[in-house]
Amino acid sequence: MQKLKELFEHVQSLTLDFEEMRQRVRVVERHILLPIKLLAAPFVVWMALSHLWKTEIHSHWDATMHTIYLFFLGYFMISVAWGILIWGMNDLKRWQLTSVVFAGIVTDVLFLAGLMVASKGFDSPIFWLFALWIVRSAVCLPSFSLQLSANTIIFIVYVAGGMLENWAVSADGFEREDFVESVVLRIFFLIMLSACSMGVHLAVVRQKQVREEAQEFLLRQEQIRANGRLAAEIAHQLKNPLGIINNVIYIIQRKVERGKTDIQGQIQIIREEIDRSDRIITDLMGYAKLAEGTLERLDINNELDWAASQVFPKGTQFGIQIIREYAQGLPNILMQRRHLSEVLMNLLSNARDILLDRGQIALRTRFGQNYAVIVEVADNGPGMEPDILPQIWTPYFTTKKKGTGLGLAIVKHNVEMYGGHIEVYSEPGKGTCFTIELPARSFLKLS
Description:
There is one protein chain. This protein has about 450 residues and is an alpha+beta fold. It has three domains: about 1-175, no CATH class; about 215-290; about 295-440, Histidine kinase-like ATPase, C-terminal domain (Heat Shock Protein 90). It is built from eleven helices and seven strands. It has a five-stranded mixed β-sheet with strand order 2-4-5-7-6, with helices on one face. It has a two-stranded antiparallel sheet with strand order 1-3. A hairpin with a 3-residue loop joins strand 6 (about 420-425) and strand 7 (about 430-440). The two termini are about 50 Å apart. The model is unreliable at about 440-445 (pLDDT under 50).
């Protein structure tokens, strides 16, 4: 059961990009269906009003058709609102556009069911429009669950329409020929068409993701190598002047030993410049080492478990409870493993130190927007004062007695290097929560 759940969540993650979905909706819904509805709407309204005005109710069939034509008038008004929204679809957000498309499919299928009742029920050629609407849902709806829901509604409405027509005819004393075999074949055809349509949709989306992951992998690897080459070149250029400065200091010190004491200010300035240059070189050499690693596709849940096992190794006595709330089916992220490990282990180590062997640490993962992964590391410790929060990312700033002040600076650097960002929420007495958003896709450009 767990495997099926994970498989379904993985399938759920295979969704269309918003731009691709919008392009499909623009072609199918606005450029094809909307003109057809504009042409058919006057005929539908005329047909409904004509029937309601002239026909008297004398039988079950008349009552059924009267209700259907009343629905046609309501369908016309719904279609007008749908058309306005589709025409202005460029201003709609993803969930709004998805809702409009889904609602359009459902109302259209109910309309098809009405036409089906009016034209021989299960024997109606309207059946092929039901099949066409299954293809429409596969093209325009962005996710597997929405397509499955829409197709289920199509099946139910098709069967209900046929049964309604059969009941209305039978209630008036007429008999139908046996149509069970043909109905079963048609329903089986709809089910197979639905499965094939959704399968093709998933295959297309997955293939697109594979291509994008390959492009992402090459792009990130090249960017890291470019950064490494640039850093190595700058470091090489800075090392020479540092050697010269050190030689000058030696000469100045010799002069001081000979009694000249008016150059201490210059010595101090030179030493400050050396320290500053040394810090620059240290940072640049850190960038240069990026080229040494290899990008990998990492499962964030597995990496969190591994980091926790390093910070809280088995056999050690910690009074800290680890709570795991992981989403399944998350996309892999492209990073060097040691960079991600530095991020997670620093955050876990900080939480461990602040809790003093008692308390809870919550590890959470979930889906983010635009194909991103959200990671939360939260503790129920003493929290931080508001005036401290802006300073925690500053190198060498620390509130620990034995801290170096570099841990969170490394965390922020590693996260942002891969196009992500990190936020912290903390209040005194309410604990601290670090939230990291890492893109499983990014569209980085080399300058």
